[in-house]
Amino acid sequence: MVRFENVGLRYGMGAEILRDISFDIAPRTFQFLTGPSGAGKTTLLRLILLAMPPTRGLITLFGKDSQELDKAEITALRRKVGVVFQDFRLLDHLTTYQNVALPLRVQEREESSYRAEVMELLRWVGLGDRMHVYPPVLSGGEKQRAAIARALIMRPQLLLADEPTGNVDPSLARRLMRLFQELHKSGTSVVIATHDLALMDQFDGARRLVLGDGRLHIYD
Amino acid sequence: MNPSPDMAARPPIETVDLTDAWSDTPLVPAETVAGRSLMLVIAIMTFLAALTAGFAIVLAGAARDWRGDVAMEMTVQVMPRTGRDLDADAAKAARVVAAFPGVAEARAFTRQESEDLLAPWLGAGLDLSQLPTPRLIAVRRDPKAQLDEIGLRAALDAALPNAVLDNHGAWMQRLDTMARVVVGAAAGIFVLVLIAMALAVSFATRGAMAGNREIIEALHFVGAADGFVARQFQFHFLRLGLRGGAAGGGAAILLFLVLGLLSRHWASSAGGEQAEALFGSFTLGWSGIASIVLISLGAAMLAGLVSRAIVFRALRSFFAAPD
Ligand SMILES: Nc1ncnc2c1ncn2[C@@H]1O[C@H](COP(=O)(O)OP(=O)(O)OP(=O)(O)O)[C@@H](O)[C@H]1O
Ligand SMILES: [Mg+2]
Predict the structure, then answer these.
(1) Are the Cβ atoms of A132 and B226 closer than 8 angstroms?
(2) How far apart are CA B166 and CA B79, in angstroms?
(3) A117 exposed, middle or buried (CB, 10 Å; 0-12, 13-18, 19+)?
(4) pLDDT over 60 (residue B3)
(5) Do the beta carbons of residue B137 and residue B108 sit within 8 Å?
(6) pLDDT tens-place string over residues B95-130
(7) pLDDT of residue B5
(8) Which ligand is nearest to the CA of A36?
(9) Given a cut of 90, is residue B153 above it in pLDDT?
(10) What is the pLDDT of residues A4-30, one digit of tens each?
(11) Which of A91, A183, B7, B79 is deepest in the core (most CB within 10 A)?
């Protein structure tokens, strides 16, 4: 569902952060994206999200050349992709509940039609009693779980998670990882960016995309 | 026991009003939009637009009334000539005109009336017989009949060598021109005011977008269409526009009501007749008030539409390049 062919990216006039990146993400697959800090993991995820165009190369999403997508197609595409940002990007003036419900609200669905679903997911990630609290008073781990819940609420076909366990204790990290695996088994393709080797070792069989020096090495 | 400073510094957590917990908080926070000052600008602009429109309506109405009055009247001037009896000439001219078809009434001003008419300029107690002033005959047309002006002129010429018919045509032309210039100028000012308001709204929209860039980005990433994002901004600006428009339009209507009352008051006092003759009774009437209400609503619509257009235009280039 995602295909990169010889993709390169530089920010402004700087050096190329990514060089000749080519890979595929097939439906119903689970993979880690790893590499040292500053290697370009977040940048790669932003490219998949069409947050910016690549400097060169071809990105194909759900079978379509990313350069030929119009605004409406980009919007439709983003509704199929759930994202957990490294910095969460929760809206501070909305409650946890409202943040998690946001993907449904921007589709202008009736609030009553999804309230129960959102509450259930919030309870599932352990935020049942933090529903009406605003993000600034949430702990780092709570924000992370809220961000994960927001990414999952639409049952995306593709989940991109940037350091989704960076702020939680090891036992919660394992629980969250099991959640991602459940998701994978139910048919979602999952990409998890992390440099937590211990975490990856728990899922030894998973595919690894390793970024280093701007290049990508794939270990199946 | 005192609470620890740490506890005291924490923001309240579970104090959210739960009745409000599910309701739709605006996605673009109201306080990030330059609300108060923009509302004031919209109010002032609406007030000015309503004022120019109102004055144009009053003046156009007064000009129309005036034109109607003037068109119904003509004057015959009987010039003094040495060796002729002015009083007799005036009486004869009045007879000729009065007998002409299409004339309702012709009345010669007496010498006393002419003196009264000129008194404000030449001073009271003046003796017109010493001055070569023409005698006037006021002619009123019959509103139901056609008047052959050329025929009347010919009849007057045949009867008297020193009588001139003035149909006030030059006056009416000037009046028309003046009314058109005033209305045109008002329309110009009106358009300028609207442009200024649109610019103010567009600056405010750009400011609000810059301040809410992260929110816009987050909305896009969770699958919001541009139209949805634009509506979040439009909502604020339409509301500001409605409030500002109501304030400005309301103030304008109030001002015209007060001016109307004042003019009614003046009319009953000395000198009021002149003002009334110039401006009519200075009432806007229902159609005028309706126009001001429409202008106010238009101001709100303009604010909403301008902000929408600006957001759409800005969003088109929002993710065009890596930042
Ligand atoms: N907006 C930007 N403008 C300029 N340079 C940027 C920008 N964003 C990232 N970079 C640079 O690109 C490089 C890759 O950044 P990126 O955030 O993708 O790394 P990462 O692999 O996600 O790192 P981490 O593991 O620390 O999150 C870094 O050197 C960073 O400084
Ligand atoms: Mg990163």
Answers:
(1) no
(2) 13
(3) middle
(4) no
(5) yes
(6) 888 888 888 888 888 777 777 777 777 776 667 666
(7) 43
(8) 1
(9) no
(10) 999 999 998 889 999 999 999 999 999
(11) A91
pLDDT in tens, B7-33: 444 444 444 444 455 667 888 887 777
Q: Which two tokens stand for residue B284?
A: 């806007």
Going by their DSSP bridges, the two strands A207-212 and A30-34 should be labelled as: parallel
Sign of CA dihedral B312, A65, A24, A2: positive
Q: Do A108 and B319 touch (CB under 8 A)?
A: no
Classify residue B250 as left (phi > 0), alpha (psi -120 to 50) or beta.
alpha
Q: Which residues contact B151 (CB under 8 A, 6 or more apart)?
A: B100
**Strand A158-162 vs strand A81-84: parallel, antiparallel, or unpaired?**
parallel
Closest CA to B216 of B126, B315, B287: B315
Q: What's chain A's Rg over C-alpha atoms? A: 17
Query: Between B16, B218, B322, which is nearest A89 by CB?
Result: B218
**Cα distance between the two ends of chain B:** 53
Beta-carbon contacts of A112 under 8 Å, excluding residues fewer than 6 positions away, are none
Q: Where in chain B are the domains?
A: 19-68+179-316, 80-161
Q: Read out DSSP for B151-211?
A: HHHHHHHHH-SSEEEE--HHHHHHHHHHHHHHHHHHHHHHHHHHHHHHHHHHHHHHHHHHH
Cβ distance A212 to A35 under 8 Å? yes
Task: Collect all residues with Cβ–Cβ distance below 8 Å to B61 and sequence separation of at least 6.
Answer: B280, B285
- What ipTM does the predicted assembly reach? 0.91
- Does the beta carbon of A59 lie under 8 angstroms from any beta carbon of chain B? no
Q: How far is B19 from chain A (nearest CA, A)?
A: 11
